[in-house]
Amino acid sequence: MTQAMEADQVVFDRSDLDGVHGGSTAWDVMAYLTQPSVNTILVLGASGNVGSMIAQIAVGRGMRVIGTGFDADLDYLDSLGVEPISCTENLTEALGELAPAGVDAVADTAGSVELLREALRVAPSPELVVTCTALECVVEDGVQWAGRLNL
User: Can you give the pLDDT at residue 2?
Assistant: First the structure.
């Protein structure tokens, strides 16, 4: 998937992503976050391998996606249908402008404990925050783990 797709064009399942590095992790994150109450999702590290797959799956499912990335990647995020936030911006302020009502869920692939803890302040609850990088936040903050460890 290299372009954002309409929800009715998405015809694939987890097995389509098994051969793609990070694809099964992206699918697992979205399997957890695809709930009726989740319409707007924040993807930390949306321009990376796993993050961009999460973003594309979410856009394909008709979700509003806000994603963080490096300045050089913001046009790429926009091309995926993601509302980009530079990782050099203050996340809370940028989200206040883009999503004053907040986000419904957070997917973290950025690997920054500090950034994830900042996102926790705008998330509805730690149960709707999934990380595949910040094990420390799973243990200390109650966020959900999407990795292959049995915790």
Answer: 39
Cα gap 69→147, rounded to integer Å: 21
Task: Choose among 41, 30, 114: nearest CA to 83.
Answer: 41
pTM, two decimals, is 0.83
- How is the chain split into domains, by residue range? 19-145
CB of 89 within 8 A of CB of 119?
A: no
107-127 pLDDT per residue, tens: 999 988 999 999 999 899 999
> Which residue intervals of 20-128 are DSSP H helices?
23-33, 49-60, 74-79, 91-98, 113-120
Q: Does residue 11 register a pLDDT over 70?
A: no
Tokens of 75: 């046009």
- Phi/psi at 86 (5° precision): -70, 140
Query: Which DSSP letter does residue 143 get?
Result: P
- Tokens for 57, please give them: 């799956």
CATH code at 19-145 = 3.40.50.720
Residue 64: is its pLDDT beyond 80?
yes
Distance CA 141, CA 36 (A): 24
Could you tell me which of 109, 139, 126 has the C-alpha nearest to residue 45?
Answer: 109
pLDDT at 20 over 80: no
8-state DSSP, 39: -
